[in-house]
């Protein structure tokens, strides 16, 4: 049975005075001559009536022994019945004891009232009075004893009910029902089932289970979650024909629903058909809500209405839960209106309405409902407090808490949970400690939910130590406790402690769920440990907790470890890929240089009818920018416009970055200018794009315009500005803004900012000053700083300082192949071929490989990639013929190869041949034969353009009257009319 049913025993006992005759079996208890002692079966001597039930003696007067039992006049019965009906317990007790002995049905009326009031003390008095007056003598038919069992059970005195029941010589089905109900109402559902089994085993006449018995036992099975026992009871109901009883059928529905067997509950409901009542509909609707099948609950509610059943308050509560779960505000409002119209018929469920409005985000409506509650209970106050917190109104929640205190509402554990949550989101640590102290004072801190929330509050307030202390003080911990403490250690980068905690979880045999694995995966990421990542991955597979969220995270993490094949293997095992799965795999490919694969994945995602979101669009725009595919970039831009994505935030910043990365500053500027809301990220992106294209003065102008708008630059913004100064030889400006960053904005420079400072000085030829700048750094310089100095020394031939920088670089990053190549090139320019050979050997010993130089060009909708001396292209013969033709024409115009840029110990002829076959030259030749005259060529290269290819491209742009945009590893070069935008400074 659910809350929708009346107490089943009241149905029997309220009608007993009319149904039960006085001619049932006699009691085996005998009173002595005084009427104050009772002889129990098997007792050697009489005991007082008070001692028999362990009751304290009461000053009740016994009637004269010789006085006959005279029934009071009819008016007295009517008066007592009226008093019980009106709930006047005091007067009813007075009238019951005024005459001796009263009829037993009078006791029944008073005991029913006592049970309803749960007035145990008064019930004990009536029990003693019945013993004293002889109403529980051997002539009692079990009626009064059963009434007393029922009363004790309702008053929570189940032990007294059991003792009284055990002393009954003859037990009827009503007696058994009373005891079953006693255990059930006291929360001992398991004991109620055991009493039922004893009832079945007794097989006494008149004690066969009836509909009320089965309904009670089914409710107990539901509480225990014992579907097997419930199924047995269902079988007995079918065998005895009681399954057609609406009371039993409703109990069956409730039992199956609580045991998670909703399909069985629905079958019982369908079978019931004509026997359904409002309680039947309420039971099945509530069952659907309890099992998370809210849509079916909604359909059943519609069916209930169409069947002509009017809803009651319990129906409203169930459907309001559905409205809250599905955020069905309009339906919730309809129910609210219906409740208001029917307010005279049943109690309006204000608290359920309040929760519904809170879950639908209508705080104003929830507050109006709250103010309409005349008698606010703890649920009302806590629901309104939770409403503020659910909707992110944390400050308002604190203010409302003050109002609670003013109205004398003492905070309970639910209030402490809500308040701690609000303070955690606000980051108010001191107030959080006050709440913690209050919880300890009121002994609320032992509550599991309170402890978990306090832990979370301290984590949000960046007080990990306090969170750990709360965890250590908790006597009972659940999954949330362990998951919370694991997450706190991970967030604070205490990865080894997190691992120890996870080992403790395994030792204690606590079931590990996906959230715990997620935290440990973050630890793997923090420790950069591929082997640990593989172990955790295997553990998740073995324990069956590898859900979609974890698979998506693993794709990301293997991608971060440059293990794309592992990410791809996981990606292929996901049957129902969501947008996160696709985005993770696209990011994995893009971040590992597999740009074409990333673009192909995006196309496959659209074919799979997965609609890209803003995160996926940002990811693909990053890949397209790396690929320099202007055509594909325009296609994605068009998609964004057609789908009405807001041109703001990361999307618009990624568009600007994509267009600038594809060499089209015109489009980048148009997107930037069209953005209505420009944040620091968008300004920074535009400053960086302008600087990368060699427009340092424009980058500074953009920075100053941003300052005028009232925005405050951050570290990244200054980094972009300093890069722009470096690429445009703006030495004084670079020094100025590095100083402004520290003095005016109080930003402590990163290693990258110092590297920019070194680059600014070194590019301008001031390598010695750059070295002194490094020595003046307030922190130990890292590899990025020494790399900037080494690059400058190589360009400006400061070989002595280059050796110093090279040694530092290899010392700091011995496993970075790029550093070895840079150092090798420096030694090659110095002619130290033995040192070059030594560097190459060291690379081989460490298993390091150089990334081959490659260039790519977009023709139509395809990207064509070339490496040095490449013959793999389908048009390879035509390309090499065109390149030979170009070289011949340029030679006639005075072009001479500069073999200083060939860093190999080979003959001059071989060096010239190597220069002729550089990848960017092959891309240029292919572009010339594949496009119409006058069409701009856009080429990208993964390494720095060498000086000879730079000169070659200038001459080609003039001879063939083509604009050629080349993006190398450092910056953009716009070649036109025989000159370059970099001014030969890169």
TrEMBL record:
Pfam families hit by this protein? DYW_deaminase, E_motif, PPR, PPR_2
Could you tell me which residues the PPR repeats occupy? 172-202, 277-311, 377-411, 478-512, 578-612, 679-713
This protein's GO cellular component annotations are:
chloroplast
Which residues are in the DYW domain? 894-986
> GO molecular function, one example?
mRNA binding
Write down the superkingdom of origin.
Eukaryota
* InterPro entries registered for this protein in UniProt: DYW_dom (IPR032867), E_motif (IPR046848), PPR_At4g14850-like_plant (IPR046960), PPR_rpt (IPR002885), TPR-like_helical_dom_sf (IPR011990)
- Similarity comment text for this entry: Belongs to the PPR family. PCMP-H subfamily.
The name under which this protein is listed is DYW domain-containing protein
Organism encoding this protein: Urochloa decumbens
């Amino acid at each position: 049975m659910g809350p929708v049913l009346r107490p089943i025993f009241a149905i029997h006992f309220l009608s007993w005075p009319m149904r039960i005759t006085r001619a049932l079996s006699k009691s085996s208890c005998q009173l002595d001559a005084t009427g104050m002692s009772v002889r129990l079966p098997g007792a050697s001597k009489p005991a007082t009536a008070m001692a028999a039930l362990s009751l304290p003696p009461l000053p009740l007067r016994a009637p004269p022994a010789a006085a006959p039992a005279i029934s009071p006049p009819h008016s007295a019965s009517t008066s007592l019945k009226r008093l019980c009906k009106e709930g006047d317990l005091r007067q009813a007790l007075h009238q019951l004891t005024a005459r001796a002995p009263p009829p037993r049905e009078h006791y029944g009326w008073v005991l029913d009232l006592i049970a309803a009031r749960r007035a145990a003390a008064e019930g004990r008095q009536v029990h003693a009075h019945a013993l004293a007056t002889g109403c529980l003598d051997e002539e009692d038919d079990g009626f009064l004893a059963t009434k007393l069992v029922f009363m004790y059970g309702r008053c929570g005195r189940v032990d007294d009910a059991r003792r009284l029941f055990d002393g009954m010589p003859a037990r009827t089905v009503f007696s058994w029902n009373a005891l079953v109900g006693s255990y059930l109402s006291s929360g001992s559902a398991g004991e109620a089932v055991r009493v039922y089994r004893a009832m079945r085993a007794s097989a006494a006449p008149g004690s066969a289970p009836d509909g009320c018995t089965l309904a009670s036992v089914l409710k107990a099975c539901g509480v225990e979650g014992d579907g097997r026992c419930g199924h047995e009871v269902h079988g007995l109901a079918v065998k005895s024909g009681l399954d057609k009883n609406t009371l039993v059928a409703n109990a069956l529905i409730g039992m199956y629903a609580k045991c998670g067997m909703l399909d069985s509950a629905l079958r019982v409901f369908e079978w019931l058909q004509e026997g359904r009542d409002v309680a039947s509909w309420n039971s099945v609707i509530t069952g659907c809500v309890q099992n998370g099948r809210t849509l079916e609950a909604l359909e059943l509610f519609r069916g209930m209405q169409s069947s002509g059943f009017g809803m009651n308050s319990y129906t409203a509560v169930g459907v309001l839960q559905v409205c809250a779960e599905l955020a069905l505000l309009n339906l919730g409002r309809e129910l609210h209106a219906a409740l208001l119209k029917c307010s005279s018929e049943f109690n309006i469920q204000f608290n359920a309405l309040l929760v519904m409005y809170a879950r639908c985000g209508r705080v104003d409506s929830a507050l109006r409902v709250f103010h309409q509650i005349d008698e606010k209970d703890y649920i009302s106050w806590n629901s309104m407090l939770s409403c503020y917190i659910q909707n992110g109104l944390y400050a308002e929640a604190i203010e409302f808490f003050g109002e609670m205190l003013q109205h004398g509402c003492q905070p309970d554990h639910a209030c402490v949970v809500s308040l701690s949550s609000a303070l955690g989101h606000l980051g108010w640590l001191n107030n959080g400690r006050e709440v913690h102290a209050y919880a300890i004072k009121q002994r609320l801190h032992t509550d599991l939910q309170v402890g978990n929330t306090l832990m979370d509050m301290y984590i949000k307030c960046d007080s990990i130590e306090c969170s750990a202390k709360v965890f250590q003080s908790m006597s009972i911990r659940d999954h949330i406790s362990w998951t919370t403490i694991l997450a706190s250690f991970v967030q604070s980068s205490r990865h080894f402690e997190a691992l120890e905690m996870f080992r403790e979880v395994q030792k204690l045999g606590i079931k590990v769920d996906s959230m715990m694995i997620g935290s440990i995966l973050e630890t793997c990421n923090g420790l950069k440990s591929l082997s640990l990542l593989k172990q955790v991955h295997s553990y998740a597979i073995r324990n069956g907790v590898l859900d979609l969220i974890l698979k998506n995270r693993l794709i990301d993490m293997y991608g971060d470890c440059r293990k794309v094949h592992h990410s791809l293997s996981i990606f292929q095992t996901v049957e129902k890929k969501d947008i996160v799965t696709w985005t993770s795999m696209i990011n994995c490919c893009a971040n590992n240089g597999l740009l074409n694969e990333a673009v192909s994945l995006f196309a496959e995602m659209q074919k799979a009818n997965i609609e890209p979101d803003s995160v996926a669009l940002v990811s693909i725009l990053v890949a397209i920018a790396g690929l320099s595919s202007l055509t594909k970039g325009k296609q994605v831009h068009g998609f964004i416009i057609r789908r009405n994505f807001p041109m703001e935030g990361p999307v618009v910043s990624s568009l600007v970055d994509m267009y600038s990365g594809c060499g089209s500053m015109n489009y980048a500027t148009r997107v930037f200018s069209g953005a209505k809301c420009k944040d620091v990220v968008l300004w920074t992106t535009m400053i960086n794009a302008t600087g990368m294209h060699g427009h340092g003065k424009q980058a500074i102008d953009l920075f100053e315009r941003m300052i005028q708008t009232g925005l405050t630059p951050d570290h990244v913004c200054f980094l972009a500005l300093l890069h722009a100064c470096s690429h445009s030889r703006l030495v004084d400006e670079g020094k100025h803004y590095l100083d402004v960053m520290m003095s005016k904005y109080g930003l402590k420079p990163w290693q990258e900012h110092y590297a920019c400072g070194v680059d600014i000085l070194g590019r301008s030829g001031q390598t010695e000053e750059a070295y002194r700048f490094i020595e003046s750094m307030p922190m130990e310089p890292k590899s990025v700083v020494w790399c900037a100095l080494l690059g400058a020394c190589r360009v400006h031939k400061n070989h002595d300082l280059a050796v110093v920088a090279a040694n530092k670089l290899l010392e700091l990053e011995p496993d970075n192949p790029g550093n070895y190549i840079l150092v090798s090139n420096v030694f090659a320019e110095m002619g130290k071929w033995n040192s070059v050979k030594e560097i190459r050997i060291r690379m081989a010993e460490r298993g390091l490989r150089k990334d081959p130089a490659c260039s790519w060009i977009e023709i139509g909708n395809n990207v064509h990639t070339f490496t040095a001396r490449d013959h793999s292209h389908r048009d390879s013969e035509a390309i090499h013929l065109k390149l030979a033709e170009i070289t011949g024409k340029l030679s006639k115009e005075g072009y001479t190869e500069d073999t200083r840029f060939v860093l190999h110990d080979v003959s001059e002829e071989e060096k010239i041949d190597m220069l002729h076959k550089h990848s960017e030259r092959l891309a240029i030749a292919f572009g010339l034969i594949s496009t119409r005259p006058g069409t701009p060529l856009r080429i990208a290269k993964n390494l720095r353009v060498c000086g000879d290819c730079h000169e070659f491209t200038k001459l080609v742009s003039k001879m063939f009257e083509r604009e050629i945009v080349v993006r190398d590893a450092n910056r953009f070069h716009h070649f036109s009319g025989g000159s370059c935008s970099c001014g030969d400074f890169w």
